[in-house]
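Need tokens for this chain, all 349 residues.
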Amino acid sequence: MRQTRLLVSIVVSAVSLVLAALGIDWSRVGQVFEQADLRYLALATIALLGFVVARSVRWRILLGDRVGLRTVFAVTNIGYLVSNVFPFRLGDPTRAVIVALGRTVPLSTALSTVVVERTLDMFVVVVLLGATLPFVSDAGWTRVAGLVGGGASIVALIIFFVLARWPQLGQRVVRHVTAHTPSLNKDRWHRAIDGALEGFAALGSPSRLITTAAWSLVAWACSVGFYRAVLQSFVDSPTWLQAAFLTCAISFAVALPSSPGALGVFQTVARYMLQVPFGIRGEQAVSVAFGAHALMYVMMCLLGILGLAQLNLSFASLRRAVGSAVSRVDDPSSIALVSEGVSTVSGEE
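Here are the structure tokens for all 349 residues:
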């Protein structure tokens, strides 16, 4: 199964890179890079760091006070490192596994906070896309993606709000299912759902909800600022509209599990979402695509390595954490095996 996933990710990257390179004069791309304004790439780096910090603050709010901000920041960066090295966006479940190693947050709670995070991200991106679409002449597939993503995020948030406000409803459903399914381990599933409901608790507190939403807006404002700075480095007279639309398009494209670091997919979407609706020359659009991706990739990997050092985690232990995350992707029922899974990852007997 894992070999098949790796093969699929390689094919996706190869095909996407071919699409990104079609009809491009690479000598002109070289000229664009030579003329790039590095001052704006420095600003892009600052904006990217702000994005990660804002996401870390938001995640700590969802996790509660049991995990320090420095630790959450380190784990967030490790998650990006994993997504850059391994296919199929395994960084998110790996983050939950690493947090659970501290024994202060159950794995099911950590996983549910990650789900809430991603749902909030989707909602913010959909709202941002809705604000940009009236001014974009040819938005292509992003309209459909916005409708699907918006509908899914709204439904999910409603469910999360209900479970945060009335957690006993979720508990009753799980107890009803386990009572009529003898093969399930009732105690494990009851502990798992209790932990998952705990991850939704922030949505039931008005103050934590408002703070979480505010940091979501800060994070995505930094993301738009990142793309605006990169555009300023390579493109003549870029606009905030282009940066906002590019942010949305890339966010939708890389949301689906694919190759490590979304290599190929990122470049293809970035190129055509600049070239088709805004008429930016292909060589400039490709320069933005490869420049933005390279900057993000290098910075996230460096921050992830620093995160590993801060938490005294080796690459071997990280691989075990990724393996545990993969097992949870392959078998969702294993989420109930909180203690067993954490012991396996940490190497305890």
